[in-house]
């Protein structure tokens, strides 16, 4: 469960980082560019923090998970209210979904992770090796 959580959080972090630069590639309204920058950066920070915590044997912070979920929802809904045209609409729907699921995976990893979720990577490797 820990490896799945870690890799999914890393993927969601990369997607939220990509959201920051979407406005530079695709011409969008100023408001959409601002939402992408601010909310994408907040999502990237919280998801990267959660990835670090999971990788170092700690559980995901509940506040970081909630911020990631809310950021994903905002990214998902922002083009509907600001600029409902393709291709930004489809890109933001996909990115918002991935970021929201990343936050939910962090919450699930916190509750379902068990003892393995509280071990460092080195401890998990040594326990699997039989030492």
Question: Which features does this protein show?
Answer:
131 residues; mainly alpha; 80% helix; elongated; transmembrane helix; membrane; transmembrane
How many helical stretches? 5
Number of folding domains?
1
Distance between the termini: 21 Å
Radius of gyration: 16 Å
Keywords: Membrane, Transmembrane, Transmembrane helix
Transmembrane segments: 7-27, 33-51, 63-82, 88-109
Could you describe the 3D structure shown?
By secondary structure, the chain is mainly α. It has one domain. Helices cover 80% and strands 0% of the residues. The chain is elongated, with a radius of gyration of 16 Å. The chain crosses the membrane at residues 7-27, 33-51, 63-82, 88-109.
What does the secondary structure layout of this molecule look like, with pairings?
Elements (H helix, E strand, L loop, with lengths): L1 H24 L4 H26 L6 H21 L5 H25 L8 H9 L2
Helix pairs in contact: 1-2, 1-4, 2-3, 3-4
Overview in brief:
The chain is built from five helices and no strands. With 131 residues, it is mainly α. It starts with a helix and ends with a helix.
